[in-house]
Design goal:
With 186 residues, the chain is of the alpha+beta class. It has two domains: 74 residues, Ribosomal Protein S5, domain 2 (2-Layer Sandwich), CATH 3.30.230.10; 78 residues, Alpha-Beta Plaits, CATH 3.30.70. It contains six helices and six strands; from the N terminus they run E-H-E-H-E-H-E-E-H-H-E-H. It has a four-stranded antiparallel beta sheet. The protein has a two-stranded parallel sheet with strand order 1-2. Helix 1 crosses helix 2. The longest helix is centred in the last third of the chain and has 19 residues.
Length: 186
């Protein structure tokens, strides 16, 4: 279940001893390991709560490894049924540019899936453009900004929040990850 308050929370509500207490840490460990691999493109899963309600135990065949693997598999199946989405970091940008470049900057940001939040003229021939954009779109922004402004613009950025990756971008990311996994196993 979604859990916006924490990256991961585990609980158990097992009654009647169907899962011996000594195997419950193995269940948690199996889920924690599966979190790191995720189910979409190999990215980790965050903000989730997992609760163990039931299980079964066999005195001969049960082991910590069996419970760990079962928990990992159950987690992956549950995640797929829950229709997971990819999230991406969104950055706040503070871009200082000469006034005559503000239109170019706004157009460039739109092409990067960015949103202009405001413009603050500084009165000295410069304007500060406040914007948000996905980190994936602004990783090389320093060189691109210098190119657009002939070296006269600068910026700072800081993390703000995560947002769902648009479907067309997510499909491409997932397909690229699938190809990398296939190449690694070939």
């Amino acid at each position: 279940m979604p859990n916006p308050e924490a990256d991961f929370e585990f609980g158990d509500r097992v009654v009647g001893g169907v899962v011996p207490k000594n195997f419950i840490p193995a269940v948690e460990k199996g889920i924690r390991e599966a979190l790191h691999e995720g189910v979409l493109a190999g990215y980790p899963v965050v903000n989730i709560k997992a609760v163990l309600y039931d299980g079964s135990f066999h005195p001969v065949d049960s082991s910590e490894m069996a419970f760990k693997l079962a928990a990992s598999q159950a987690f992956k199946e549950g995640m797929q049924a829950g229709r997971p989405v990819l999230l991406e970091p969104v950055m706040n940008l503070h871009i200082t540019v000469p006034d005559n470049y503000t239109g170019d900057i706004m157009s460039d940001l739109n092409g990067r899936r960015g949103r202009v939040l405001g413009m603050n003229p500084q009165g000295n021939g410069f304007t500060v453009v406040e914007a948000q954009a996905p980190l994936a779109e602004v990783q090389r922004y320093v060189s691109d900004l210098r190119s657009v402004t002939q070296g006269r613009g600068n910026f700072s950025m800081e993390f703000d929040h995560y947002e769902q990756v648009p479907a067309h971008v997510a499909d491409k990311v997932i397909e690229e990850a699938r190809k990398r996994r296939e190449e690694a196993h070939a």
